[in-house]
Amino acid sequence: MAVTGSDIQYGVALKELRKKHKLIQYTMASQLGLESQQQYSDLEKGKKHFTDEIIIRICSFFRISILDFVKQVQRDTPVYFLSEKDHREITEAGTTELKLTLYKKLFLESKIENIEASLRNFQNDTQFHRAVPGKHKIHVLI
């Protein structure tokens, strides 16, 4: 997966945590299950993508919640959740109940996209390629 802007910010947060606990990169690489200190260095520099698994390992090692780690990264970052079309649709909705329903729909769609991406990654993993049957679809009715 390609490196994103969030990866750079995660790298900064990870470096702060490591320095706060007075650890060296080699130790962190070992704790995170990385093959080398260079891979860890690439994480801190934002040159390597932070997978969910790496974030979970970081949080487990430092005994912090995933939300705390992510919030630390997003603290100074404006987050834009809605496209212009979605924003317009919600602002033009007549009732509060309709607006709430539209927000729930968007939330569920984003979760479904994440689940489908995880399934695609799982299916592409050569170790499990034969064990996973065809496509998985999730349908949600509101």
Could you tell me the radius of gyration in angstroms?
Answer: 19 Å
Structural class: mainly alpha
Helical proportion?
A: 55-70%
Percent strand equals under 5%
The count of helical stretches stands at 7
Average predicted confidence as pLDDT: 76
Overall shape: it is elongated
Unreliable spans are 77-81
The H-and-E topology, N to C, reads as HHHHHHH
What is the tally of beta strands? Answer: 0
Q: Describe the largest sheet.
A: none
N-C termini distance: 32 Å
Description:
This protein has 142 residues and is mainly α. Helix content is 62%, strand content 0%. The protein contains 7 helices and no strands.
Short description:
With 142 residues, the chain is an all-alpha fold. It has helices at 5-20, 25-31, 37-44, 52-62, 66-74, 84-91, 96-124. It is built from seven helices and no strands.
Chart the SSEs and their pairings.
Elements lengths: L4 H16 L4 H7 L5 H8 L7 H11 L3 H9 L9 H8 L4 H29 L18
Helix pairs in contact: 1-5, 2-3, 6-7
